[in-house]
Specification:
Elements lengths: L2 H11 L4 E3 L9 E11 L10 E12 L4 H13 L3 E11 L4 E13 L3
Parallel strand pairs: 1-2
Antiparallel strand pairs: 2-3, 3-5, 4-5
């Protein structure tokens, strides 16, 4: 399993639409866009990595009060063993009416042979 596929399961599990990179359809009142950030080999020796850390940013867009969804999404991510590395309010998009809140996550996976 990969970070993106696990994130999709978690986000859809709390009832939020999710896409990677950009939301291609007409956006609903609330949705999430996942942007891959990095794949690193931080935990290895002998130049043969056995694990990789995958990182992504979840951009939560909400036209209403985003605080409930932020809390719900954070709790679901932590319950699924993701590490939350950053959470921050990006701002209100006046032209679209969406609040934009970002949650950065990381998870370590065994490298595939």
């Amino acid at each position: 399993m990969s970070l993106l596929s696990e994130l999709k399961i978690v986000i859809e599990g709390i009832g939020l639409p999710v896409e990677t990179g950009v939301f291609s359809d007409e956006p609903p009142e609330e949705y999430v866009v996942v942007t891959p950030l990095a794949d690193t080999y931080e935990l290895h020796a002998d130049n043969l990595p056995e694990y990789e850390t995958q990182e992504a940013r979840l951009s939560l867009f909400s036209r209403g009060n985003y605080l409930k969804r932020k809390k719900q999404l954070s709790k679901a991510l932590l319950s699924a063993d993701f590490t939350i590395t950053d959470r921050r309010y990006i701002g209100h998009e006046d032209d679209t009416g969406y609040h934009h809140y970002a949650i950065d996550v990381a998870k370590t996976y065994e490298t595939e042979e």
